[in-house]
Amino acid sequence: ILTPGQLFISCREPFDADEYIERLAWRTPGGGSKGGAEAFDPKRLLEEFENHIEELKHLDEKIQRRVEKLEHQCHREAKEFAHKVQDLQRSNQVAFQHFQELDEHISYVATKVCHLGDQLEGVNTPRQRAVEAQRLMTYFNEFLDGELRSDVFNNPEKIKEAADIIQKLHLIAALHDLCKYHDLERQLIQEFTAAQRRGEIGRMQEVAAVLLHFKGYAHCVDVYIKQCQEGAYMRSDVFEDTALLCQRVNKQVGEVFQSPETVMAKLIQNIFENKLQAHVKEKLDETRRSDVEQYLKNLYDLYTRTTALASKLTEFNLGSDKHTFLSKLIKNIFSTYLESYIEMEKDYLRTRSAMILQRYYDSKNHQKRPQGGGSIQELKERIRQRTNLPLGPSIDTHGETFLSQEVVVNLLQETRHAFERCNRLSDPSDLPKNAFSIFLLLVEHLCMDHIDYALEIGLSAIPSADAKNANLYFLDVVQQANTIFHLFDKQFNDHLMPLISSSPKLTECLHKKKEVIEQMEVKLDTGIDRTLNCMVGQMKHILATEQKKTDFRPEDENNVMIQCTAACSKVCVYVSRQVERVRKSMDGKNVDTVLTELGVRFHRLIHEHLQQYSYSSMGGMLAICDVAEYRKSAKDFRVPLVLQLFDTLHALCNLLVVAPDNLKQVCSGEQLTNLDRNLLHAFVQLRVDYRQARLGRHFS
Predict the structure, then answer these.
(1) What is the pLDDT of residues 316-338, one digit of tens each?
(2) Can you tell me the distance from the alpha carbon of 266 to that of 183, in angstroms, rounded to the nearest whole number?
(3) Which of 144, 192, 205, 268 has a C-alpha 20 to 30 A away from that of 340?
(4) Which residues are listed as membrane-spanning (predicted)?
């Protein structure tokens, strides 16, 4: 049996009295409530409880003594810690008082030193000024007497000291014309120029430092800029020459002048406003009116190379806002050209696109038909395109689709160049608007004037559904239009989207693209629908001319080969050829969609065709052979629905040959059980023995 301490430890936290009693009773022999090894003994359990209570009392007293001991120890240590803290506070207060006294003393000494320094400076400064004034007065008297006796004015080696004196005397005698000032300034500039030609950096630095206080310092910088450009532009590439010149001069400027960033900025400004501006004007003005294409290419090239040069020049120290400085220089050169850029771009693109299209139609000896007129003939044409009504003969295009990938590539290439120029030459705020206007021209010439026009011609060339031996070229139009539109979509994503993706023009572009796609899809759907009608019409013509009534009611039933009829063979060959054409003309889900529609119409035609004949027993077998062959053709569609339709039709044909007593069983089969009873009855009625065998009773 566990002691109270051990039992406490074995209990889970927090302490639960009921659980504690249960555990105690469970561990006591005879204390179990539901039998076990020993029977329940209440006396023994009571005795155990009383003993345990006594032990708990002793344990409680023991713990209480321990708690009192720990509390006493804690109070004692708290008092000792409080005494230590008080001692530390007193020590800290004494140290702080000493620090304050030291700080006050230091402040007092510093005040005395500053006062003494002020007194010394107050005495020394007037003295130095007096000495300097006396020296300048002596030199001034020499100028008044007209005799320069001092060595500083007569010794060429002391030109720096003389320049300093002359500068100060010039300020003093501003009302007097001291020719010596200007003569000396001119001599200094000449000396600087000569030193520059000799390549004496040290002498140039010395003279420039002297001239810094003269009015002619700016003239010195101008002379330096002019002279450093001599012989720098010997090649035909002015941009490369400029980059090399600036790289060479940058190091020298830092050694010669005290503010090299100002001199470097002035050099670059001089180059941009003279050399580059003259070069740009010469290149652009000669082609602006005579050759717009070359003008746009030159403008793009010059602007690109100028901005690239400016990017290289940012590595030099040109002041605090060098990017704005260089941007202004570029704007000053190209502003007049960029203002009219987008209009010239659109005019060129419009003219160029029209010329590409016209050249193509001329090569085909084709006179382009006007669209959107209001004549009766055009009204008839539009009605014929949207219906299957025979409103006149179709146009014979001789297999020409009037779509050219070469034309499309040329139009897309011209537009791509336009997008590239637009991205480079347009102001960022005008870029989305300009790109959108170029996109509209692409839509006009590629989508409307070429693709849409070809679709109109293709629709006009589709023969009526009852035409014989019709040539169906519209699928070729579909194939080429699909390829072309993939190219158009690629250019839209690759070249237009980056220019408008973060602007409101994105919505307009997407809406316009969607509108164009939907317009073309309507015409494509109309053309494909009418083409499928022509295919079905051709099949119907083959069946009408090749299928004979005796095919399914042979005169000699004992001498018949069980094989498909000639009409069936020709239809299957025709269907396979058309399925292959559809696969070549379309891609993706469009293939399955069109083949599904063609397969459904094919099935409907065969279903209706079979219901036109009556069948003998052997004729029914031949019909089954035909349907089996049709089903093989249906497999080429690779469309589950079409194959299922022909499987059902094959099952229906079994009704033509099955024994009369087995009709109900066959009609209840898996493939026929869900069909309309009238449809089953209609097929049974096609049997020659329908009335003789009274087969109708099986459907009563």
Answers:
(1) 888 778 888 899 999 999 999 99
(2) 26
(3) 268
(4) none
Cα–Cα distance, 356 to 351 (Å, whole number): 9
d(Cα 354, Cα 346) in Å, to the nearest integer? 12
Q: What share of the chain is helix, strand, coil (3-state, %, to 5)?
A: 75, 0, 25
Distance CA 218, CA 223 (A): 9
Write down the pLDDT at residue 373: 47
Of the candidates 336, 313, 308, 333, which has an alpha carbon nearest to the alpha carbon of residue 323? 313
Burial of 425 (0-12, 13-18, 19+ CB in 10 A): buried
Return the number of other C-beta atoms located less than 10 Å from residue 431's C-beta.
18
Question: Is residue 136 classed as helix, strand or coil in its secondary structure?
Answer: helix
Cα distances (angstroms) measured from residue 298 to each of 265, 271, 301: 27, 20, 5
Per the DSSP assignment, residues forming a β-bridge with 9 are none
Give the C-alpha separation, 633 to 605, whole Å. 14
In terms of phi and psi (left: phi > 0; alpha: psi -120 to 50; beta: otherwise), the region of 516 is alpha
DSSP 515-530: HHHHHHHHHHHHHHHH
Nearest residue to 394 (alpha-carbon basis) of 468, 459, 456, 455: 459
Helices (H), 611-662: 617-637, 640-653
Long-range contacts of 603-606 (CB under 8 A, 24+ apart): 603/634, 603/642, 603/645, 603/646, 603/649, 605/536, 605/539, 605/540, 605/543, 606/630, 606/646, 606/649
Q: Name the residue among 277, 262, 254 with its Cα closest to residue 322.
A: 262
23: its two tokens: 């555990």
- Residues β-bridged to residue 615: 687
Q: Which residues contact 685 (CB under 8 A, 6 or more apart)?
A: 696
Cα distance between the two ends of the chain: 93
> Among 628, 537, 518, which residue's Cα sits nearest to residue 578?
537
Give the pTM. Answer: 0.67
- Residue pair 542/574 in contact by the 8 Å Cβ criterion: yes
- And the tokens for 73? 């120890």
Q: Are 571 and 542 in contact (CB under 8 A)?
A: yes
375: Cβ contacts below 8 Å, ≥ 6 apart = none
Contact 596, 639 (CB under 8 A): yes
Q: In angstroms, rounded to a whole number, what is the distance separating the alpha carbons of residues 445 and 441? A: 6
Nearest Cα to 361, choosing from 310, 330, 388, 401?
A: 401
- CA separation for the pair 675, 670 (Å, rounded): 10
Say how many C-beta atoms besides its own lie within 10 A of residue 70's C-beta: 10
| CA 673/CA 686 separation, integer angstroms | 19
Q: What is the Cα gyration radius of the chain? A: 54
Hey, what are 167's tokens? 């500068």
Cα dihedral 409→415→421→423 (10° resolution): -110
Identify which of 236, 533, 221 has the alpha carbon closest to the alpha carbon of residue 384.
533
- Asked whether the beta carbons of 415 and 441 are under 8 A apart, the reply is yes
Beta bridge partners of 687: 615
pLDDT at 365 over 50: yes
Interatomic CA distance for residues 511 and 270, integer angstroms: 49
CA distance 646 to 569: 16
Encode pLDDT of 152-178 as tens digits. Answer: 777 777 777 878 877 777 776 654 555
- What pLDDT, on the 0 to 100 scale, is given for residue 530? 92
Cα dihedral: 628, 634, 636, 637 (round 10): -170
Distance of alpha carbon 406 from its chain centroid, rounded? 28
What is the per-residue pLDDT for 630?
95
Residue 197: both structure tokens together: 């030609």
Question: Cα 245–248–253 angle (5° rounding)?
Answer: 110
Q: Are 245 and 255 in contact (CB under 8 A)?
A: no
